[in-house]
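Check this:
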Amino acid sequence: MAEQQAGAIRRALAARWLGVGLATVVAVVTLGLGVTGRLTLYISPETVWFACAAAVVVLVAAVWSCILPLGAEGDHSHASPSEETDAAASRRRIMQTAAVVSGGVIASGVVLAGLILPPASLSAELAMSRAGETTALFAGADDVTIGVADTTTFGVGEWASAFATSTRPENYEGSAVTLTGFVTPADGDAVNLTRMVISHCVIDAQPASVQVGGDGLDGSYATGQWIEVSGTVRADADGTLRIEPSSVKKIAEPKDPYEY
């Protein structure tokens, strides 16, 4: 009897950890990232308030759940002893135990990784792996295809769309730019200035790149190095747009490394 009670307590503790425990840890981590401003490394700024509000609701529910007796989570079986054989009951317990153990290991690993590993932005290697043969279109692309938009507010994403879709590249000749991003390889002596652009969260992040090259580009820049480029847009004879830099400064990764 004592052994059965101890087993029941262990199962109840495991069930509570998988439910309330993991949810509480995730909620605390979310609020901590939100307060420190690091939640934008994972989701867009527009959804930070929603994630934090959801985390608060989870914490309130977790506190409320503490009034439940230990093991109450498992009091939901409607089958009586006469309705299932001992063999069926044994198989059901084995399957439940396997599901709990496997789910618990995976979920606990994810949560513990979130606690131990420091928040980090997406890497340059990931950006290069997500870069396809066709340039993705980002915010402002519709304005660009209609005509020459107001480029004073353009980021790397908008300029990448302009470089890829413009049918009158000469219209952008001489436009002054100041852009921030990290270095990825390009053909020849040029480099690509790259920025990850996200719509909702890092899962949908796509790299946007503009080519930087010319006499103003000197020195070596390692892949992944963050730089601030000031210069002028140039249209080459073949219609290719590039940025001719007047100054290139190495900088630290900004607090918010993404564009939206």
Remarks:
- The CA atoms of residues 60 and 144 lie 48 Å apart.
- The mean pLDDT is 77.
- The first helix runs from residue 2 to 36.
